[in-house]
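Pasting two entries for a bug report.
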Amino acid sequence: MKSVLVLNLPFLINDDDEFNYVFERLKPIFETRIEENGFKVVQWTKSGWVYFFTKGPVLNPDDLKKYKISITKDDPDLEQVWERMGYKVVPQDNKDMLIGLESGMVSAIYLPAVMAASGQYFALAPHLLAPKLSPLVGGLVLSGKTWDQIPETFRQPMLEAAERHTAELNQEIDQLEEEAMKAMKEHGLVINYPSEKEMGLWREAAARAIESLVGRIIPADIYKMTMDFVREYRAKGNR
């Protein structure tokens, strides 16, 4: 569902509080569009935050141009965006990332902290760019036909149970992410913190990438609504 991809845009959302504010307002819109395509969302999940992991230090967008970035295979639009911005990319399946790092085929990846720790990716790409890149959001989706086969009396209790489970799961993910970060730092992970000036360069680079994606991959109206909610949240004095 392309609308949900708006949450994966780099440096668009800063932290959990901002994500929760924006997502709660976008969720019914996402669900309506998914249902229009013949599916039913039973549960949403957030699997932590995605970070850049690299073989050497990265503080600004030009630093990243020294590395070969692993990106999702079979997504030519995303590949073109990276390349137009001047980056070297290697399309591959997730299962090949570790081999790519070991062989030198790739030297930069972006992953949730829990996956980077559990899969030992950080041992081969031991530098982390401190700012969060984006939240990783998924969900349990049923076909409309399967949903219709569930007796109506069970549907609402099922959704309520899924909602309770989501809250518990999100707490567990937050704890696992914290533990993963701690374990990686204890085993050699180097966290690189950009200056305010360097963060400005990242935001400019992200804006150029977003401009290439909105209207082509990300629906323009969804992007506008997302930015409206982000600005609304920040106008309340949040950062």
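Entry 2 (this is the one that rendered wrong in the viewer):
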Amino acid sequence: MTAAASDADAGIAALPTQEAGQVFRILHVSTGNVCRSPITERLTRLAVTERLGSAGGLVVESAGTWGHVGAPMEAHAAQVLTEFGADTDGFTGRELLDEHVIRADLVLTATRDHRAQVISMGHSAGLRTFTLKEFTRLVRVIDMATLPDATEPGGLVSRARALSRAAAALRGWLAAPSAEADEVQDPYGAPIPYFRSVGEEIHGALDPVITALTGIRADGGR
């Protein structure tokens, strides 16, 4: 078993009382898994916990198509997360493996190329793989009243499944204005101001997604 596979198994082990059907796994994918996908992973965890008080069966992970296996998060990425108040502890880079895609209920990628690479791995990943910004665009038009209440027992998992299905049904009906509109560019090697701009871009794209997942806006309203 590879180190990356061991890390993925650790995510399951962290939820010993929950059956697989009671867990919804979100996988964020970028290239090296040291910049964009760690930022997206940790900001997702932070936002869900802030709005609901706990993750409630949601497992958020990340990996890279050319993942820097075992590498720490890029220092500027960690700084950006710290400025947002997110946890950076315990992160190590992973290479995207078949088992990550198989177990993921929703895959959100940084770019269209990443999305294509995930889909090319098979495992019926097409309907559950989107770029982050594509998913954001789709969830904005979903009627939130049709989704289960995330605050009920098991509600977050049920709501996440319903949201993912609704977004998949809308794909093709709501086109992006341009290819670039669905992508988050790679800040690797860039100075900290560019990392901050990418962090803000990811944070802004995540906000409607977290609202859709939890049913609660950033200001606490519904």
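Dev reply: Rendering is fixed now. As a check, the viewer should reflect this: Residues 141 and 211 are 12 Å apart (CA to CA).
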